[in-house]
Task: structure prediction
Amino acid sequence: MSQRHGPVTAAVITGSMPEMDNDHGPLQHHFDDMAQQNESAALGMWLFLLTEVMFFGGVLTAYAVCRYLFHDAFAEGASHLDVQMGTINTIILIFSSLTMALAVRAAQMSKTKLLVGLLIATMVFGGAFLVIKGIEYEHKWVEHHVPGKYFQYDGPMANQVHLFFSFYFTMTGIHALHMILGIGWMIWLTIRSWRGDFSAAYFSPIEMTGLYWHFVDIVWIFLFPLLYLFGAGAGAGH
Amino acid sequence: MSHDAHAHDEPHIVPLSIYLAIFGALMIGTALTVWVAVFDLGEYSWLHTPLALLIASAKATLVVVWFMHVKYGSRLVWIFIFAGIAWFLVLIGITVGDYVGRNWEPAPNAWQAAVEAPRSSELG
Amino acid sequence: MNGSQLPPLLPPSASTVSGELDLLFAYITAISVFFAVGIAVALAVLAVLYRRKPGDGPPPQIHGSTALELVWTVIPLLIVMSFFVWGTDLFFRMRTPPIEPLEIFVVGKQWMWKIQHQEGPREINELHIPVGQPIKLTMTSEDVIHSFSVPAFRVKQDVLPGRYTTMWFEATKTGTFHLFCTEYCGTEHAGMGGSIIVMEPNEYQVWLGGGGAGESLTDAGERLFGQLGCATCHGDQAGARGPSLTGVYNSEVSLAGGGSVTADESYLRESILEPATNIVAGYDAIMPTYRGQISEEGVLQLVAYIRSLGDPAAAGATGAAAAGEAGQ
Amino acid sequence: MSEQAAPRRRNRGRYEGDVPREHYLNVAYGLKSWLLTVDHKRIAILYLLSITGFFAIGGLFAAIIRMELMTPTGDLMSSEVYNRVFTLHGVVMVFFFLIPSIPAVFGNFFLPMMIGAKDLAFPRINLASWYIYTIGGIFTLAAIIAGGVDTGWTFYTPYSSTYSNSAVALTAIGVFINGFSSIFTGLNFIVSIHKMRAPGLTWMRLPLFVWAHYAASIIMILGTPVVAIAIFLIAVERLLGVGIFDPALGGDPILYQHLFWFYSHPAVYIMILPSMGVMSEVIACFSRKRIFGYAFIAASSLAIAVVGFLVWGHHMFVSGQSAYVSMVFSVLSMLVAVPSAVKVFNWLATLWRGSISFETPMLYAFGFLGLFTVGGLTGLYLGTLATDVHLHDSYFIVAHFHYIMVGGAVMGYLAAVHFWWPKMTGRMYSEFWGRLSAGLLFIGFNLTFFPQFLLGYMGMPRRYHFYPDEWQVLNVLSTAGASILGIAYLIPIIYLVYSLRYGPIAGPNPWHATGLEWTTASPPPQHNFETTPTVTEEPYDYSKAIENVAITPGAGPESPPSPAAPRS
Result:
C-alpha cells in the first residue's frame, strides 16, 4: 500500500541494495561516474518527495474543505485531542530531525561511530514518537472516538465530529506508517554504517534517507497545528 | 553525461552551529505555534489558522533549506520544490474555492444556495 | 424503426433555451467542420502533391516560421474565446430562473424520480407541467447522486444527497418528452427515467384537480409539523424553547456562533436534519436530529410549510398559515 | 518475443555468412533472465506482453457492450452484468492499457536509446514498476473473478463508497497500486532526461518523443498521488466506515470528484502526449523533413501538461459546483485547446514540400491526425458551459473521448508498434497486411464512434443498458463498426507474431530515420550502444539522409549487420 513505497523507493533509488552492489561497487554500470549517479539519486528522491507532497496534499485538501464546511464541529473534535502529547511529539520529532541532519554530516566527515550513534538516536526519537502516538490512539479507543462501528459521541454534531476523527486517524495514520517504514529502513542503514559502507566518498543512501525523514517531519509540522491546536484556544469560534 | 556535474564531488559540510541554530529556531517556532493557538485574539480569532499555517510554513522552510541542504543544491531542486508547492496550491485553492464560491450566486436566488451556507467568517 | 421511416437525427427542441443552445451548437459545429474538413483536405492535397516519386532528392529542410506559429496560436485562441463567452452567457441565463416560477419538488431515489407538486399531486417517473410557464425544480436525493436530464429542453442537473440543487426550464411545446437519469446510480440506472408531459395550462389545471389532489404540500407539511410536535418548542409565544418560525423564511438569522445566515430552504433543511450545526443566537442546542426519522419528501413538506408561515418580503405576514399559501 | 524463439532464429542463420551477434534478446535465456531483468528493453517487452493482454480483456468487454446495445431492450444480459462489463471495460482500458501503453513500452524501450544512455537512471525501479503494475492487475483480475465491480471507472461516491454491492475495495486497491507503477515510470524518465543525456545532446536537440514523455511524466508525478489518495479513501471508507465522501456520515460527495478529476483529466494527456511524440517521429521520417516549428511543438507539450492541470472541473459543470468556478474551468479548458491545435498545424506544415511515403506507421499517423482533430474539436463543445449542460454524460462524451483515446492514443500506439517493430525484433512485418489493417481500423473506428455523436446530441445517456427504440439504427451502425474495428485489431497480432520467425531481416535502420536509436543494431545490443554516442546535430535532420529509396512493402532493405550504423 501507499505508505510502504517510501523507504522502498528510497532504497531502490539510492542503489544500495546489497546483492546488486557486490560486483560493481557503489557505481552502477549505466552511470559514467559517481557524481552523475549521486545527482540522479538526489533528483529521484526529490521527485519522489514531490509525489508525497501531492499525496498528503490530497488528504489536506479534503480536510480543508470539510473543515470549512463544518468549522465548529471540527473545532469541537480537535478539542478532544491531547495538545500536551502533540507538543511533546513535535519536539521529539524536531530532535530526531536534528540527529538525522547530524548523521548525514557525520557520514560526510567519515565519522563512522558518530554516524551509527546518531542513526540510533534518530530511531529512538522516532520510536518514542510512535509510542506516544500509540498511547494517544489507545485513549481514543477507550473514549470510543475511533471512527467506524464503535464510534460514540454524545453531542449535537456527532456526525461531523466523527468526520473530524476520520481525518485525524487517516492523516496521523499515514504519517505514522511513513515513520515506521523510515525506521525500518534506518535499521538496515545502521547495520551497513557499522560495517563501514559509508564515508565521505559514498554516503548517498544516508543523505536520501535524511531527505525522506525531514519530509516526514515537515508533514508533522503542518499536521500538529491543523489537528491538535484547532480546538485549543479561543479560536474555536464559540 | 551530467551537465551541471561536480556539484557533489566534494560534500558540502555544514557547520554544526548552523544545524543547532536551525534546531533552536524550530523549537521557538513550536513554542510560538502553541502560544498563538491558545492566545485569545478576540474578534480577530479567525487569524488563528492563517497564523498557525504561517509559522508552520516558516518552520518547514528552515527544514527544507538547511536540514535538507537545498541551499547548497542545484537550481533544479528549487524548481521542483516550487512546482510541488504550486501544484498543491492549485489543487487546494480551486477545490476550496468551489465550496466558498457556492455561496455566491449570480442572481438573488434563494433556492440555489447549498446546505453549506456561510457559517462564520473564518475560512477552513 | 416503425415502417420505413428513419428516426430523426435531432432531438425535439421544446424549451425557451433549446433554440439558442442549438444555435450555439451549430456555431461550434460550423467552425469545427471548417477546421476538420480543412485539415482533411490539406492532408489529402499534401499527400498527393508531395508523395515521394522515384528519383526525388532530399526535400528542403524548413525550420519553421514564427509568424505562422503566431497566426495559428492567436486565431484558434480568439475562436475558442468566442465559444467561451457565448457559452458562459447562455449558461448563466440557463441556471438563473425568472421571477415567480412554478415550483415543483423532486426527490431522486434508486431507481425512480418522486415528484411533488405544490398543490398536492404526486407522481413517480412522470412530470406534468403546463406549457409556457417557467418551472423551477428543487431537487435532492435520498441515496446516491442522480442527474435530472430532459434532452428536449437541453437541461440537466445533478441531484445530490445531502443538499438541494435546482434547475429551471420553460416548455414551449406540448407533448411527451424523455426524462433520464444521466448520472450512473446503480443496477437499474437505465430504467430510472420517464416522461415529461407538457400540457396546455387549462388541461394542466384539470390534471391538477383530477390527479391525486387532496392534500397540498403545505398542508402535508402542517400535518407532519403537528405529528412531530414541532409546535411544542417552536410556538409563537414568548419564552419558547425554540425560535418562532413565523416569518423566518428568507430572513437573516443571527447564529449562536457569531455571524448570520439567510434562512433559505437549505438552511431550514439543515436545521431539521442537523440542528446543532447552526444554532440560532439565544437558544440552546437542545433540538434532536430528525435525520433518519423524516424522509427527504417529508423534509420538503416541512420546508414548504415553514415557507408558508410568512416571508419578510411578503410584508407583515402573521402566523396565519393560510395567508402565506405557496410562500410567494 | 519468447525467449525460446531467439536461439531458433539464430540457428536458422540469422545473419548468413556472419558471426551470430549478441543482442538484448539472446544475451540470456530462461524465465528468470526475464523476470529479474533490469534491462529497460526487456522490461519494455514485459510491459508490451502484459499490456496487450489487458487490451484484449478490455476489448472483449467492449465487444460485449456493443453486442448488448444492438437491441434497445437489453436482452443479452441483466443490468447487473452489463454494469460490471462497462465498468471493467473502463477500468482495464484506462488504468491498465491507455495510461501505461506508450510510456511503459516505447518510452521504456526508446527513451534511453534516444538520449544515448545505457539504461534509465533507476533500472530496478523500472523493474519494480512492472511488478507493481502486475500486482495491481492481479487485484483487478481478482475483482473480476470475485463478481466484478459496477461503479463505472470513475468510482463516484457515495455510490462506490456506500451503496455498491460489488468488489469495489478490491478494484480500488488494484488501481491504487497500479498508480505507483506510473509514478515510478515518470520519475525514472524525468531523472534520465535530466541526467543521462549523451554528450552534445542539448535540450533543443532532444527528439520530440522525449519532450512529450517529459511532459507526460510531470503529470504522472504530480497527478497520480492525488487519485491514489482519493481511491485509497474510498477503500478505507468501505472497509472501515469512515465517512469523508458520504453525506449520510457528514462528508461531501463532490469532494471526491475534485480529487478524482484533478488526476483523471490530466491523465488524458498522459495518454495523448506520448502519442503526439510518436507522431512527430513518424511524420518527420516518412516525409523526410525536419519537423516544422520544433520548439513550438516541444513547448506546446509542456503547455498541455501544465494547463491540463487547471481544467479538471469541466467534468463537473452540472455536478452542483459553484457557477463561478465552472466559469474559470471553462476558460482554462478553452486555453488547453490551443497548444493541441498548434501541434496539428505544425505537423501539416511538416508535410508541406516533403517527400511523403505511405508505409504502415505513416498511415496510422494520418489516421491519428484525422481522428485526433475530430476528438479535439468535439472537446470544445464540452468545454463550452452551455453546450456541456446538454451533452454531459451522454453518448457525445463517449464518442468524444474515444476519438481522443482510441483515435489518438491507440492510433499512436499502433504507429509506434509498426515504426519500431523492426528495431525491437530485428524483423520486418508484412507491409500489405499492415496497410490493410490500418485502413480497416480507420473505417471501423469512424463507423463505431461517429454515430455516437449523433446519439449523444439526441440525448442518449451513457452507461445505459437499454434505451428508447428510436435510437436503434445508430446503435446498430456503431456495433457494425465495432466488429470491423475488432478485426482490425486482430490482424496485426497475427502478422506481427508471424514476422518474428518469417519476417525479412530489418537491419539497423530500415526507414532511414534519424535519431540515436537507429544508429545501433536491430535488435539493439544489451547496453544499447557499443560506444557512447556523441550528438553534433539537430534532430530530424533529413537533409543528409540516405538517398530517398522507396521503402518497398514487405521487404525491408537487407542491410548487413553492423554493430553501429556507419552514418555520422
